[in-house]
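Structure tokens please, single chain.
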Amino acid sequence: MDGNVWVVQTTLPGDWPEPLVGQWAFELVETGLAACVQRNLVKSVYRWEGQIEESQEWRVQIKTSKSKARELTSMVSESHPYDTPQILAWKADSTAEYTSWVEG
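Here you go.
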């Protein structure tokens, strides 16, 4: 691997219809902060307000460059519907070609 990209991951409510999730993802790419957004439904088990909960959620994984990662995570946080959203970010090794594409 000859490059790096940043992966930002969050979840959205499972009861959101797919077109709404798609629009949310589209806006991240349209701003230029995200190169690619992937989404899929997952089952989440978590503790919330002292109770163990299980719910369906949309897992959203976003690829971006190092220079855009901080602004992207801020945008995700500001536009997120949850009180305490999961926002994870990590550096991932990638090919030089894919890194170049992500960096635009």
